[in-house]
Every structure is written in C-alpha cells, then in structure tokens.
Amino acid sequence: MAKTKAVDSKETPLMKQYNAIKAKHPGALLLFRVGDFYETFGEDAVKASKVLDIVLTKRANGAASHIELAGFPHHSLDNYLPKLVRAGNRVAICDQLEDPKSVKGIVKRGVTELVTPGLSFNDNVLDKKRNNYLASIHYSKNELGIAFLDLSTGEFMTAQGSASYIEKLVQSFAPSEIIYSKACKAYFQDLFKDRYNTYHLEDWVYAYDYAHQRLIAHFGTNSLKGFGVDNMPEGITAAGAILFYLEETEHKEIKHIASIARIAEEKYVWLDKFTIRNLELVYPQQEGGVPLIDILDQTVTPMGSRMLKKWMVLPLKEEAAIQERLLMVEALIAQSELRTHVLAHLKPIGDLERLISKVAVARINPRELNQLKRALKNTLPIKEQLLASDNAALRKIADQMHTCEFLISEIERVLQEDAPMLVHQGNIIKDGVDQELDELRAISTSGKDYLVQVQQREVQRTGISTLKIAYNKVFGYYLEVTNAHKDKVPNDWIRKQTLVNAERYITPELKEYEEKILNAEDKISSIELHYFNKLVLDATEYVTQIQLNARLIGMVDCLLSFAEVAVQNKYVKPHISDTDALEIKDGRHPVIERQLPVGEEYVPNDIYLDGDSQQIMVITGPNMAGKSALLRQTALIVLMAQVGSFVPASYARIGIIDKVFTRVGASDNLSKGESTFMVEMTETASILNNLSDRSLILMDEIGRGTSTYDGISIAWSIVEYLHNHPKYKAKTLFATHYHELNQLASDFPKIKNFNVAVKEVGNKVIFMRKLKAGGSEHSFGIHVAQMAGMPNPVVLRAAEIMQHLEKDKNLQKNQERMKDMPKQTYQLNLFEMDPKFKAVKELLDTLDINTMSPVEALLKLNEIKKKLE
Q1: Is 67 in contact with 41 (CB distance < 8 Å)?
Q2: What does the pLDDT average to over 774-795?
Q3: What is the pLDDT of residues 218-227, one digit of tens each?
C-alpha cells in the first residue's frame, strides 16, 4: 500500500476514502473509479504505469504531500485488466455505488470484484483452450490435500495423497494461482519454489471442521457422501478454503459451482512429473517444440479443447472405460456423414460452459445471451444425429442432452437478434413483446420527428433560416438563434442562455415534448431491463442442464477429434486387454512423423514386451540413430490408446499399463545448481521406488553423466534390479551406448538385446532407424562427431585412441592400456622421430615444384614411396 502522510487533516476527502478501502485489500492493486476513469495511486500507480505502459503523474494530496497517479478510461477496463492479472497481480475493482448526480460530497464507493490470476470471468483474461484453475493445498502430517476450481466453468475437484502425487497434479492441471495456509509457506516453497502465483490465508481457514461446514452449507446437503469425497479430510479442508477465498474476493454469486468431484487416483495411469515433462504430452520442453496435444487436438469448441487436455494428463486404466471411448471413435470413423453433420453443428456452439456460468453469476450481456440460444439450437441436431447412431455409447450421450426448448423459444421471442453488448445501449427487446414498450417507442420516435416539424414551422414563421433545435443536460431541448437574427425572435420564446455569437430559447411546447420524450426513453430503458433480467432468471433455472450439455458436447468434440486425426494419419484401433503383453507392429512417433519433410516417410518399428519371455529390451546403437524416438513413441502409443485414441501403428495389442516412467532426454537443472547426473539419478530413484507389475519403464542413456566405469556399473545394476525384482516384472525399454550391457542377455532369460541398424558406406555411416535383434558392436560416436562438423584433427585423434582401446575389451586391462596411449603428435615433429620421415623431408626440401614436369613429379613421388617402405 502506498505510504501517505499520517495526519488526516492534510488528506483530501477522496484520498481518505481511498486509503480506507485500500487498507481492506492490502495485497491487491486497487482500481479506484473516479468519474469516467479508473485511477491508481502511490505504489499501485508506479506498478500499473509499468505494466500498462500508461503515463505516471503526481497530484496534490492535501496541503503538504504529493502522490503518484496513473489511470485509464473506465470503458478500457477490458483491455487493461487482463494485462494486470497476467502480470500476476490481484486487482481490486472499486466502483461508484451511487449516482454522482444525486449525491452531494463524496460518492459512496466499494470493491465490487477482486480479480486474481485464478479467479476471473473476463474473456480477455481467460484462455478459451485451457481451464483457469485456482488450486488450494492443505498440508497435514501424513498426506496433502488439494482442490481445483475453475470459477469460469464451475468445475470443482479435490484429491489427497503424497507430496509427489500432489506435485504431479499441480503440474498436470497447471493452476493460474495457488492458495495455502500461511503456516505452510516453507513447505510450499520447498516443493514448488517460485513457479506459481500464490496467496496465503490465515491458518484457521485450513481447519477441517470449518471447511466441512462451508461445503455442506454451500451445497445444501447434510453430508458430502453423495459427492464421494466424505473420506478425504485433507481434500475437504483444501476445498473449503477455496469457498472462503471466493467470499474474500467478493465472488458471492457461485450457484454454478453445483458439485465437487473426486480425482480418483485409482482410475488413471500414474504419470510422474518427469514423465509428463519428458514425453511433452501437453507442453513442449523447448521453445518451438510440438507437444502431442497439438497433433491430437482438432477440437472445434473450447469445452472440447479443455477436456482433451484433462484426458491427456489423466489416461484411463479401466478396460471398460477405454473400450467405450475406442468403440465411439470407431463408430465415428465408420460414419463420415455423421462426422460431417456433427462437426457442422459443433462449430457455432462456442463456449457454452462459460456462457452458462455467466448466467449463474448474472454477468451475461444481451449479445452473449443470443450466443447461448445459438449454442442450444445447435445442440438439438447433434442430439438427433447421435441418437440415430448404431453405437450405444453415442446414443447414451445424446439421450442425456437437454433440449431446453422453452428457454430457446423465450430468448427467440423476446431478444433482438442483433442486440448490442450492453443493456443500456437500448433496442434489445423485440417489438410486439410489450404493448407499453411499443407505445413508448412510438412516442420517442414520433416525438423526435415532431421536433423536426417544430423547427421547420418556426423557421417559416420567423424567417430565421439558421434556426437550430438541440439538447443539453442543463435545460433540455432549446432553440438557438445567431446574433444576426435575434431581432426576429417572437415574444412567446423564453431566453435561457446568451453565448458569444448566439442566444438560446425555450418554449412551453418544447418543454412538454421534452418531458414526453425523456420519460419515454427512461421507461423504455426500465422495461427493456425488466425483460432482459427475466430472461437471465429463466436461463438460471437451466444452469445444471446446460452445464451437463456443455460437458457432453466437449466429450463428443474430443471423440470427433480422435476420429478425424485417425483418418488423416492412418492410425489403427488398438486391442486393449487385461493381459500382460505389449505388442506394437510398425509403430511410429505421432509427432515426429508429422514434422518430416514432404516425401520422407517415418521408419516404423516393432516392440514386444511381457513379464515372462521378454521383459527388458536393451537397445544399443549410435547417438542420432533414433533410440530416444523409439522409446518415446512406445510410451505415446500406449498413452494414446489408454486415452481412447487410435494409434500410429499397423497393429497394437496393449495389456493395460498402470504406470509410465521415463528417464529420457536432457532435463538438467543446472540453473538451480543440480548437475545432469544428479537429476538423472533423482529421476531414476523415483522410478525404482514406485514400480508396479504393470509399469512401463523407458530409460535412455542411464549413467552418461559420470565416468564410464561408474556409468556402466550403475546401468548394469539397474537392469539386473528390474529383472530380478521379487514382486514386479516391469516392462522396460533400456537404451544405452554401453555395449558391455549386451552381456546381460546371456545371463538373464528375460533380457533381450536389440540395436538400431546403421549402414557403413566407405567412411560414412547411414542411419537406417530400424530396430533389429542382437547387440551392436560399435557406437559410431566418432562418425557422428565428424557429421556434426568436428575439426578433422580431433576426429582422427579420437579414432586413434579408440583403436588402441578396442585391442582389448577387458575393462581392467583397458584401464592399464590408458597408460600406453599413443601420445598426441603433430606433423612438424613426426620427421624428427622417424629416420624414414627425416629422409623424406630432406628430399622434399631439395625439390622446386614450380619447375618440375609431370613426369619428374611422378618419378620423385615413386622415390619417396620407396624411402617409406
């Protein structure tokens, strides 16, 4: 809060009022309405001027002090508010609560809304394609509780579990803001650092009894059993704190938050935070990268796009639920006409979910209400078309859709098709709806026509050709006569104002019509507002039904997107089973294949894993050969299948996976002081400590961050551990450049060696990117260095060292051979070391190349050759 002089007598009345309101919201940037402007003062003004790029000035604050000031016109709020919120600010909007015209002295003001990064209905703040979650975290001795709320849609969820599970959920749902108890600041900082916008509440808000009571009072129930969250004390505590926070931020209309759902950990595939990041499911790791969601998301509604993101981070592990989605996608693929018709009606629907939330909180405008009507009208043919489908699950979705026919007909009957955005702009209600309204409109229109007639009549009567009729707020309608004609003014006109070049008059007739017209316009505005509010009230009774419609439409949109992507990219339906095997034939990487140049085809590969015969595939091969892509594509194919999508392969049989772990790609935290090796070992430890029998593990180049001997030892030990685990036979793809690991296949029956094929042509290596059985003997790392443009002397020296070391594969002997390594030599002293080269040098020194004939040159070359033999 801005520091101002403590002496009240020196403060202006306006600043006294400002400081009193600011004191109630010390952590927020206060937008203070003054006339037609929103003003900021003090530190808020300094901050706002930088974020919004607006002028910072100073104004007098009483007798002896000045205060910084920055403001913008009130009608620009929608442009400036999003910038302030996206910069991480909490913004308190302070409005005038009474009409300044009817008040003497200071206008009553108060905060009407506190917008935070996680709480907003503003379309310019929100991203249509993603949810805007507020998260609340509760810390207890044993487990953490978490709740997520998207105020703009009414979606409310809770969960509880270990710190790693909560951290994974936060990463998956990417909340715009997180709240927590002040007492837990150190724990929060330790887990999340400074990655999120945060706000901490008093400790008592995070008390179970208080939170439980708030939830019961809000939902109007006796218990929380009906929501399936009654046995989640930590989750309930986190959720109750959100309701408190809503009240604190002046969000009191929250009827659209009609239920709370449990995020059922047992229903979804476990993806730890490393895996979500490494596989780039929703967000790319590098700037300009392409995540999987970009390939799969061809949704046309905001609800579909938001739902698909949730599906991606919460893949299913219940066979029946996966099969239901796959069968619906299959039905949509088979019926191209159905796809075309449904798609045509999905496109105009828009953001139905957020529109109905605006209805619930009475923030919808006339234009949006018309959009709500269009959305509902387009839902009807979708319902009809899906009911005619031969797929039972699609028919079930259609059957749940509400037609809302009364609401559609009421909006159609009452609201103008081209109604403006704001109610006070007028002309929002159709003719014929209200007799009085029609009569008043006629008076208003004819009254203005009458004024034109008065003007023309008086011009003729007086001969004043420049006579004008105009209006101002001080004395209403008036006649204006220039000084050149003022001697022609009749006696029955009453003078009201003298200007430099003209005089203004009124007449009894003008005052009578003025009263009629102004009264008519006031009444028109009042009647239109009454009918509009009644429409909003009617729509409020459909909130629950339309929220369900929005979810069902989002689901149809996701399934349709899967169908379109499958047709375009030639994906196949995976065979989901409860068996142990994972079998993929001609698998492709869904992202990389779409990035290839025109005419270049992705090289497909087969993968087979099970718990009995081939639990671990050790894959060797040079860097750049495609090992990492092969690992990632396997995980992506599995996850796509369990999300309900068809997959990039010619055949896929997938025994349901319950956990996917990855240790692939560079994810160094060097900027945070952690080495590559430390990060690698942390991620690997997370995998080995959380195994299950149905886990899929992808490990790429484990041990590369330390010395060769350490690296080989760690990698060897990890593979042995996974093979010999007493309880779990996790299916594993283990890519490595340590060819020594090929020995493991001889010692352990469920480990099999594979390599990514390369072809040597002369001194060049061509990467075939094809997986074949058997280990690889060479790493071709030196060839890769050459291809990367490494200077030739470095490449040649590396080849010399490798040749020396490869004379003996025994690690211990190789260590000893290091001492006998041929030393680095240069061309200049080669001749001093070898008598033959010395003789050649002496011979070359005597030659004059410029005077030699070709034949002489050849003879000398032959002589040199003999000296070196």
Answers
A1: yes
A2: 62
A3: 999 999 999 9
- Are the CB atoms for 600 and 557 separated by under 8 Å? no
Distance of alpha carbon 45 from alpha carbon 54, whole angstroms: 9
Average the pLDDT over 402-409 and give the result: 95
Cα distance between residue 490 and residue 42, in whole Å: 58
Domain ranges in the chain? 8-115, 134-263, 298-404+543-569, 435-535, 575-787, 827-868
CATH topology for 134-263 is Nucleotidyltransferase; domain 5 (3.30.420)
- Fold (topology level) of 8-115: MutS, DNA mismatch repair protein, domain I (3.40.1170)
Domain 298-404+543-569 has CATH 1.10.1420.10: yes
Fold classified for 435-535? MutS, DNA mismatch repair protein; Chain A, domain 3 (1.10.1420)
Residues 6+ apart with CB under 8 A from 804: 817, 820, 821, 822
DSSP letter at 10? G
Phi, psi of 602 (to 5 degrees): -75, 135
Confidence band of 828 (pLDDT split at 50, 70, 90): very low
How far is the CA of 166 from the CAs of 146, 171, 267, 418, in angstroms? 7, 9, 16, 47
Number of continuous H segments (helices) and E segments (strands) in the chain: 30, 27
Rounded-to-integer distance, Cα 703 and Cα 715, Å: 6
Task: Provide the whole-model pTM.
Answer: 0.81
What confidence category does residue 834 fall into, taking pLDDT thresholds of 50, 70 and 90? low
Query: What SS3 state is found at 666?
Result: coil
pLDDT at 824: 54
| Two tokens, residue 97 | 């609560």
Q: Which helix (H) or strand (E) is 114 found in, with range? A: strand 109-115
Q: Which CATH number fits domain 575-787: 3.40.190.10, 3.40.50.300, 3.40.50.920, 3.30.70.100?
A: 3.40.50.300
Q: What is the pLDDT of residue 803?
A: 65
Vertex 545: Cα angle to 543 and 551 (nearest 5): 100
Quick: pLDDT tens for 520-542: 888 888 999 999 999 999 999 99
**312 or 766: whose pLDDT is higher?**
312
Tell me the one-letter amino acid at 618: V
Mean pLDDT of the chain: 86
> Do 575-787 and 8-115 fall under one CATH topology?
no
CA dist 237 and 107 (Å) reads: 40
Q: Which residue has 């998301």 as its token pair?
A: 297
Question: Which pLDDT score is estimated for 680?
Answer: 78
298-325 pLDDT, tens digit each: 999 999 999 999 999 999 999 999 999 9
DSSP 710-725: HHHHHHHHHHHHHHH-
Read off the pLDDT of each residue in 552-557 and give the average, rounded to a whole number.
97
Return the DSSP state at 398.
Answer: H
Q: What does the block give as tokens for 448?
A: 């203005």
